[in-house]
Each structure stands twice: as structure tokens, then as C-alpha cells.
Amino acid sequence: MTEHEDFAGLVGHWNGSDAYPFSPASIIVPVVFSLIFLLGTVGNSLVLAVLLRNGQTGHNSTNLFILNLSLADFFFIIFCVPFQATIYSLEGWVFGSFMCKAVHFFIYLTMYASSFTLAAVSVDRYLAIRYPLRSRELRTPCNAVAAMAVIWSLSVIFSGPYLSYYDLIEWETSHICVPGWEEWKRKVMDTSTFTFGYVIPVLIVSLSYTRTIKYLWTAIDPLENMSESKKAKRKVTKMIIIVTVLFCLCWLPYHVVILRYLYGDFPFNQTTYAFRLLSHCMAYANSCLNPIVYALVSKHFRKGFKKVFSCLLQRNGRNRVHVLRAAHTMPGFEAGSTEVSQMNEDNNGHLSGCELDPRSLMIPTGSSRPLHIP
């Protein structure tokens, strides 16, 4: 038996639904992965809506990095989680060779983008707190966008080899998506991924936040300590540190499983199967945890989430009012005046900061009064 056939047989046995009398994946995967997909999609969509509403990212480098992190998480949830769930649910890969390569490429692309972004934002937080005045010229939105471009470019370069790393291999009556490279090449690739995608960013983050925390708690300046700016910077730094710690904890088991298989004794049995499944669930769950952290720690995001929800509810309410009024309009009755009057009352009372409804631009028949748009 060749090396690839041996590896395919082991992975097929590991993933096969009939490998054990009772497979936990048959229950865990649909529930956990569906929950991750739902929370990740909704949560990151809300974060993007809050940051993009009224152009709030245009004047703040930290918000731009948070936007970049949310985009990486959103892409990961959409393009990776649904496909990866099938590995534990079905006995073979049913999406073809191209998707086998593309899905794993996106997994590592978004992982690199997240880790590089966290490293960049840790340096940004250190400069903002340690050198608030001297770093203003460096911490500009333009430079943040340039940093984001560099982050995604490096992510593409480091994850590019995964387009050829995975391939379909025939196993029994189906095909499975497994690494197709020789063992020594896999060791080089996976070790490089662990080093550049995890270890180095974690070291940068650890150094930056260690110095940041040391300065925050040891700097003696009573007037500065009482300022709202200092308190706000502490809260933002606290939020980013929590996000970073979660990333490190969630992705560590994933890397441990891969390195343990390549360099140690990692047998294929029910215990290692459960640990492998847990490591994947933790890595994927990381993409839906960040919005929860933002909501719990940041008052800004809590207010933003509430405003987005209120805007959505008001829009649905206006749609229902519009349908009901249109249904009960008598022939020959001008409904425009009543409709616009009702919506203007809603706009004046509740729609501050919400997206302007196009129907509010309707002018009642016979009105000579100019329409005011806030």
C-alpha cells in the first residue's frame, strides 16, 4: 500500500459514519456547525453594519482593523463551515476537486488574515496608549488601509500552496479530500503554517500587550488616569485582548492535532476522533465569538447593535403599515398624504441614524412645503 493510499484509508476510517457503532458526529456536527454558521453569519453581519453605518470606520484605525477581522470571520463562516461540516456527516467529498482545494485555501487564507490583523491591532493599541500624540501621524486611516492590503497579500502568499496541497483520492466507493503531498512536504508546509500563522503573531501580540498593560497599570499620572480618553483606550484594549486570547485558545488544538500526527504518535481511534472533532469545532467557533465579545465589553457596539435592530424593526413596521393602508384605501382617496405623514412622525421620533427609506421622499399632493431630510 502506498503512502497516499494508507493515509486515505486512515482518514476514511476516521471520518466514516459506520466506523463505530455510535458516531457522535451524527448528532454533534449538524447541531454545532449549524449553530456556528447561524451565530457567525448574524453576529459578523451586525458588526459590519455597525462599523459601516455612517462611515464610522473612516476616522479610526482600530475600527478598520476590527472591520478587517470581521470580514475574515464572515468569509470563513460562509465559505468554509458548511463544506467542512460534510466531512463529518458524509462518507465522502461530494463537491469535486476544485472545491476541495478552494475550501482549504479559504480556511488558511482567513486564518492568516485573522492572526496578522490581531498582531497589527495589538501594535496599534500599544502606540495609541503609549505614544498617543507622537503616533497620530502613523495611525491614520490611510496607513491602516495600507496595512490591511499588506495583510491580505501576505495571507494569499502563505495560503497559496494549499491550492495544490489537498486533492481528491478514491477510497472504496467514494472520494475523500485529503493532503496529496508527500510526508516531508507536508511537514514543511504545516510547520511553516504553525510558525508564521500562529507562533509569530502570538509572540507579537504577547509582547505588545505585555508592554501595553505594564504602561497602563504602572504609569503615574493622576490627571491622565482621570481622563475619559484614557478610560476609553483601556476598554478598547481590554476588548481586543479578549478577542486575541480567544483566537489563541481556539486555534491551538487545531495546530496540535496536525503537528502531533506529523511528528508524534497520534493513533486513529475513537478518542483521537473526538479530539479532532473538538479541535475543528473550537477553531470554527472562533469566528462567531468575536461579535459576542464586542457586545459584552463595548458600550459602543451594544448601542450600535440596538440601533441596527431598531432600524430593522421599524422598517418592517413601516412595510406592514404601508400594506395595511394600501389594502384599506378607498377608490379615489389620496393615500400619499396619510402615508407620508405617518412615516414622517416615525422618522422624527425614531429613525435618527437609520437608513433613509425611499418612500419618505414622497411629497403629499398639493403640498407647497419643502420636505426636510435630516
From TrEMBL:
InterPro entries according to UniProt: Galanin_rcpt, GPCR_Rhodpsn, GPCR_Rhodpsn_7TM
Q: Which GO terms describe its cellular component?
A: plasma membrane
According to its record, how does it sit in the membrane? Answer: Multi-pass membrane protein
Compartments annotated for it: namely:
Membrane
Q: Which residues form the G-protein coupled receptors family 1 profile domain?
A: 43-294
Write out the GO MF terms: G protein-coupled receptor activity
Return the Gene3D superfamilies for the record.
Rhodopsin 7-helix transmembrane proteins
Q: List, alphabetically, the Pfam families matched.
A: 7tm_1 (PF00001)
Q: Which residues cross the membrane?
A: 27-52, 64-85, 105-123, 144-163, 196-218, 239-263, 275-297
Q: Which PROSITE patterns match?
A: G_PROTEIN_RECEP_F1_1, G_PROTEIN_RECEP_F1_2
Sorted UniProt keywords: Disulfide bond, G-protein coupled receptor, Membrane, Receptor, Transducer, Transmembrane, Transmembrane helix
- Annotated coiled-coil positions are none
Its family remark reads:
Belongs to the G-protein coupled receptor 1 family.
In its UniProt entry, what is this protein called? Galanin receptor 2b-like
Report which gene this protein is encoded by: LOC110087129
